[in-house]
User: Fold this.
Amino acid sequence: MFMHNKRLQYTARVDVTNPGLANLLLEQFGGPQGELAAAMRYFTQAVGEEDPGRKDMLFDIATEELSHLEIIGSLVAMLNKGAKGELAEAVDEQAELYRKLNGAGNDSHVTQVLYGGGPPLVNSAGVPWSAAYIDTIGEPTADLRSNIAAEARAKIVYERLINVTDDPGVRDALGFLMTREVAHQKSFEKALYAIRDNFPPGKLPPVPQFANIYYKMSHGLDSLPAPWNSGRGLEIQTGEPAVDGGDGNAQVNLDATQAAALDAMASRLASRTDADPTTGAELGMGDNGTELAAGKGTAVDEEAP
Assistant:
């Protein structure tokens, strides 16, 4: 059960209204790295979690992400306050209003006209939020790693948003939200390493002969020896086919009926290599195409249209 507290988790202040900045902030409202995506990711994981400690953690962080969604939404709404009233009441002449909506650095025309300055569940390009942003797979050792990466991506987006505004109140609130991404990363990493056998994810062990090999798949210059290709627990090898000792050719067993049907199809659709017929593209070239075809030393089909 959720109950709404009318006070924000962190005090949001806006010094000067700015619809263009509001539009950019929508990236963290309805975008793939945004607060709604994070809240839904952790909420769905919590519902299916069997470990009581991780369940509490996931619900707590999911709830906090919803509070962050409220902060971002409030910032977007406040940044749009001036334009919202002007647009609704037709304060400006049409030309001046158009200039404001499409002026330099302001890409807010879609959210202003379509959503009236409110915070829609879209990203900064107007793309609607999607549940496809949630990549939960139901295995804690995989999901926690994904959560860590999601929080890292969100922190980077917040850094970029901070860098595009000089509004002290907005920068202050974004700095708080950015910092909470770091705190969540710490919690998720602690939870991951609290699982004794957390790697590799899942239960089945990897195939031993392939588990510790780094395949050098590029040719030309030698690969630079590095921890990720030849460090502790890794051995570098060329990825020449077939690494399993076979001939590298795909094989399938067919019964007699299937084999006969496949042979008949292959025969019917076989390519001729002894002819070079005139193509539609050559006919479309007019005389040049006819001369080109004749120059090949092959007969031109006189019945061709």
Summary: DSSP finds 14 helices and two strands in the chain. The mean pLDDT is 87. Residues 13 and 169 are 5 Å apart (CA to CA). The longest strand covers residues 213-216.
